[in-house]
């Protein structure tokens, strides 16, 4: 991931292929996108301090890694210094780097994680587990005053789906698996975890558990706390293993203590998770509501109904206008269709185009189930003055839903 922003080099958001966006941003937030407002400090101009790492600890870490490298590479240290909150990005882009980790290690299995932790304890060093680095809570960053050696423990080599038990619908998955890779491995066996935070493409299972993450389909699948049945954690006191039982009535839950612990109790190496069969059909439909109040009331009625939808999302009028402003250069046919829709909404449904709100509702399951859900939701939407605008906007949303963090870099 880029040290100063989101995602991969070569992928970025631009206004150049979106004719309405420049005018929209000027009008709404007084931002002129024709001139560059700020650029990150060049990597070569950053003041990267020398790592504080004794030869003894370096040797102990390399031994723990089975002879593998303990990296003191400046870019590696920089990329592991912080998360991706707005505050993190602003400081990084200005060259205010804070306390960089001194060394980055990438253990290849649980034994190596335990050996690294032992080496850190013996040397009284600080150990910070690192998943995808998308944290927004500041937990990846050591204190500016920290004098002990800071080790960033990167879990990315622990990325496998180890086993799926079809009878109990439980999967054992290593903590460093990134969202897309994890889903790819499960989908290949016919299963899905169904956990899709906005940061899905660049975050890991261990990070989700350590931050008690929730995602865009958590209404249907549950958040990561609901999905996580058991954990394996390397702690300073030894290996902690909880059992994957569905529920217990035996006092405080150790699993619950690990959920959301932000790396403070130890390093999660593996978890057992509740998985579901990949649905037969999956569709996201777009809807328009006359006002925010109508859209919100419809979402509340859907939540209170028997409908089991996978996504419910409604934008306010500003976000709706932003979505329309980010459309790429439309063809003549697109322009005609869009004009026809606006006229239809105005004349037949009395919509004020400035106040209308865009919504996406997702359906998954067997064809019969999806059909029944669509009808049920359609009646609720209709009661609140909403209109279905079909599957094309939903398909576009589905393709682009993980790209929004790139917009932040563009606006910075
Ligand atoms: C643009 C953007 C969108 C986001 N959207 C969402 C969202 O929709 N839902 C949501 O819940 N969050 C969201 N987040 C926050 C962030 O993505 C989540 O907190 C995510 O779960 C972090 O995962 P990660 O793998 O990147 O972990 P990291 O950022 O690497 O680490 C996060 C914390 O967990 C600890 N940790 C990581 N791995 C382990 C491990 N194996 N063992 C022990 N501790 C560990 C770290 O030490 C740190 O304290 C978003 C963040 C950004 C920047």
Write out key terms for the chains shown.
Uridine Diphospho-n-acetylenolpyruvylglucosamine Reductase, domain 2; Uridine Diphospho-n-acetylenolpyruvylglucosamine Reductase, domain 3; 5-stranded antiparallel sheet; 412 residues; 16 helices
Brief digest:
This protein has 412 residues and is α+β, with helices and mostly antiparallel strands. It is built from 16 helices and 15 strands. Helices cover 36% and strands 18% of the residues.
Structure overview:
With 412 residues, the chain is α+β, with helices and mostly antiparallel strands. It folds into 3 domains: 38-154, Uridine Diphospho-n-acetylenolpyruvylglucosamine Reductase, domain 2 (2-Layer Sandwich), CATH 3.30.43; 161-277, Uridine Diphospho-n-acetylenolpyruvylglucosamine Reductase, domain 3 (2-Layer Sandwich); 281-411, Vanillyl-alcohol Oxidase, Chain A, domain 3, CATH 3.40.462. Helices cover 36% and strands 18% of the residues. The protein has 16 helices and 15 strands. The strands form 4 sheets. It has a 5-stranded antiparallel beta sheet with strand order 5-6-10-8-9. A 4-stranded mixed beta sheet has the order 1-2-4-3. Helix 2 packs antiparallel against helix 5 (110-122) and helix 11 (292-304) packs across helix 14 (367-383). The longest helix is centred in the last third of the chain and has 18 residues, at 332-349. It is globular and about 75 Å long. The two termini are 17 Å apart. The model has no long low-confidence stretch (mean pLDDT 93). It binds flavin-adenine dinucleotide. Flavin-adenine dinucleotide is lined by residues 83-84, 128-136, 139-140, 155, 175, 197-199, 203-204, 206-208, 210-211, 213-215, 262-263, 267-268, 405.
